[in-house]
Q: What sequence folds into this?
């Protein structure tokens, strides 16, 4: 049972504030992913929890006890580094046994535990090898083994698979998930890769310039991004963002994008949900799969011209010119032949997000 | 894999081999000369042209380790028969080994000077490398205020030729009673080597990723334990290379040893040339002393040669 809580954590590097008033509660057995671009403070947060970095203000609590003044060694937390950090002068066995040697365990106890961890990770036959003789994936397995062997209160992982190649990354991602389900320890995982975050996390914590942007399940941050940063950071291909003007016509609301004369049709309910923001500066966000495309004229669809088509195998991404703006739509592969075609498009109201253009905050409109 | 070589490459290789051989010969010639002189009879040591082929003798080494006096008359057959084999070689040169009243052989000053050299060089090397490693670790891993200035200050102690401070040092040492003492020389050599040791070790420790220690810290070790269990084994190459350089410097130091010591703590370098034998300088004895003096450094360097090579190219390339 391990809960980790951050209360009002602040951290400065000189004059630069790298963590701004961070509050976060992590439940027992939860797999949390800290997601953000490099320099957003996610690694510093992780290192602060590990005890490798001091904080300037706030509390870090493990199981309700403040630990910010404890040494790393006394926090009973394990960490996997991006560089793996296997000790080069020790073989795999010694590397995994190293954390146990800091405890008062007997030689035979250590041996049993090292071998059992090696078995779980399927590295038993590598046990006498030096780290330099291992492949990247095996090094990572050993690094995870070294973290697991002590049965720590929590596992911290700093881009643990960032240094591997794409195929291996996918394999290790699945393996980390499998291990987490099997071992069930509170885990905090740092990455800049949103696919990794989506596939691993129970909850994702998105950070930007030291400020927490949103905490939520992968579905929440994908479907209901709290602000423009999250909206554009999570999801690939990236969400379309455009300034929008909302108008009222006879039967419904109309939203025009990119200064186009004609607007997309929206339910009337939009006006009331925008709650006074309708006249203000609005930014509309729509993921490519929310831009619907037809080849023949259909009710509610506006005529647009196709620009670039990017075939991505299972689907295509098509650039559509709407006014002065380009909207990217996701279509079946081969649906659009090429640039310059005249097709019909509309925006799916239920997948549309509205943001305050000035603050970037979501207006929480759900249609 | 059989690489196909063009004829120009072959020619180049041959020229390279010849050049390397020539350079090796030039470097080894003085060492050969010292070694061969150490085994020559005294009358062949200074012949013109030099003697290259000769019957090797052990007498220079016997003379090096013992006190001798000139004999007026050649030894009687009884004396000759009673003498051990190593004394007979001295008889041939018209000398005899000095014995005390109980008949014990009187040793020359060489063994004790050699011991002094070992004590001073080893202790100062251990101290310089040890302190240097700790200092370098501090500079490498922690934010030290004025780090650049401090490091420059440490380096600047090497910018003056050491002999410049010889007289003030001599006066200070005499005032505090450190002259002609092992401790005095050890302090002196440690101080000389320390700046070098700090800089070299800092280069090595900078190359060790700090994640290794961080991993150890998270794994439940203190910083001190992490230093000894992780950093030291990783820095072994650097420590070995630094130790070789420090040892050679301390072992070969002549000027301060000559000024600061005269008997008790005198090291081998100032002693060897003072061995002039009875009468004219006996070059074979000087050569024998020098030859033995070369051995520890040669052995030490040979044992650590791989580290040394790495150490010399290390830090030259920055990441």
A:
């Amino acid at each position: 049972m391990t809960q980790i809580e951050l209360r009002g954590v602040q951290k400065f590097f000189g004059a630069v504030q790298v963590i701004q008033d961070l509050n976060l509660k992590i439940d027992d057995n939860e797999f949390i992913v800290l997601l953000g671009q490099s320099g957003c403070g996610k690694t510093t947060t992780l290192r602060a929890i590990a005890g490798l970095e001091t904080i300037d203000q706030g509390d870090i609590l493990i199981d309700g006890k403040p630990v910010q003044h404890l040494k790393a060694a006394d926090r009973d937390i394990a960490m996997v580094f991006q560089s793996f950090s296997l000790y080069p002068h020790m073989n795999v066995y010694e590397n995994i046994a190293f954390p146990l040697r800091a405890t008062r365990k007997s030689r035979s106890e250590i041996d049993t535990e090292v071998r059992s961890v090696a078995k779980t990770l399927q590295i038993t036959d590598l046990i006498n090898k030096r780290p330099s003789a291992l492949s990247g994936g095996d090094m990572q397995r050993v690094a995870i083994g070294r973290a697991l062997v002590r049965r720590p209160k929590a596992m911290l992982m700093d881009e643990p698979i960032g240094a591997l190649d794409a195929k291996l990354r996918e394999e290790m991602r699945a393996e980390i998930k499998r291990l987490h389900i099997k071992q069930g320890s509170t885990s905090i995982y740092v990455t800049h890769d949103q696919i990794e975050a989506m596939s691993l996390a129970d909850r994702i914590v998105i950070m930007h310039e030291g400020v927490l942007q949103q905490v939520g399940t992968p579905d929440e941050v994908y479907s209901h991004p709290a602000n423009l940063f999250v909206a554009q950071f999570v999801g690939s291909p990236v969400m379309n963002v455009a300034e929008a003007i909302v108008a009222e016509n006879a039967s419904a609301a109309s939203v025009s994008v990119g200064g186009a004369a004609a607007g997309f049709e929206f339910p009337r309910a939009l006006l009331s949900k925008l709650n006074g923001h309708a006249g203000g500066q609005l930014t509309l966000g729509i993921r490519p799969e929310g831009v619907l495309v037809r080849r023949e004229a259909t009710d509610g669809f506006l005529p647009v011209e196709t620009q670039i088509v990017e075939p991505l195998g299972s689907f295509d991404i098509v650039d559509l010119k709407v006014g002065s703006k380009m909207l990217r739509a996701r279509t079946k592969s081969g649906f659009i032949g090429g640039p310059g075609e005249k097709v019909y498009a509309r925006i799916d109201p239920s997948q549309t997000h509205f943001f305050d253009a000035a603050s970037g905050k979501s207006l929480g409109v759900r249609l | 894999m059989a690489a196909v070589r063009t004829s120009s490459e072959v020619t180049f290789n041959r020229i390279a081999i010849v050049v390397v051989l020539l350079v090796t010969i030039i470097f080894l010639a003085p060492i050969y000369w010292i070694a061969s002189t150490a085994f020559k009879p005294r009358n062949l040591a200074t012949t013109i042209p030099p003697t290259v082929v000769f019957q090797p003798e052990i007498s220079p080494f016997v003379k090096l380790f013992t006190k001798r006096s000139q004999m007026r008359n050649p030894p009687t057959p009884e004396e000759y028969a009673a003498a051990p084999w190593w004394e007979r070689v001295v008889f041939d040169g018209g000398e005899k080994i000095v014995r005390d009243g109980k008949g014990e052989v009187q040793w020359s000053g060489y063994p004790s000077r050699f011991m002094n050299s070992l004590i001073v060089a080893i202790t100062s090397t251990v101290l310089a490398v040890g302190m240097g490693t700790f200092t370098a670790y501090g500079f490498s891993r922690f934010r030290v205020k004025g780090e650049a200035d401090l490091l420059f200050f440490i380096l600047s102690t090497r910018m003056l030729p050491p002999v410049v401070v010889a007289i003030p040092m001599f006066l200070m040492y005499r005032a505090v009673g450190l002259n002609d003492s092992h401790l005095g020389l050890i302090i002196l050599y440690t101080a000389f080597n320390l700046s070098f040791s700090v800089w070299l070790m800092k280069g090595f420790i900078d190359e060790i990723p700090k994640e290794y220690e961080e991993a150890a810290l998270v794994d439940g070790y203190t910083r001190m334990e992490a230093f000894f269990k992780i950093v030291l084994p990783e820095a072994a190459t650097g420590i070995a290379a630094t130790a070789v350089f420090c040892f050679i410097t301390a072992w070969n130091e002549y000027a301060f040893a000559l000024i600061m010591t005269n008997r008790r703590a005198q090291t081998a370098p100032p002693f060897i040339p003072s061995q002039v034998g009875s009468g004219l300088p006996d070059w074979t004895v000087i050569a024998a002393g020098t030859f033995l003096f070369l051995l520890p450094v040669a052995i030490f360097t040979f044992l650590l040669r791989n580290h040394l090579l790495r150490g010399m190219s290390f830090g030259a390339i920055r990441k």
Remarks:
- The beta strands of chain B are 68-70, 95-97.
- Chain B touches chain A through 16 residues (CB under 8 Å).
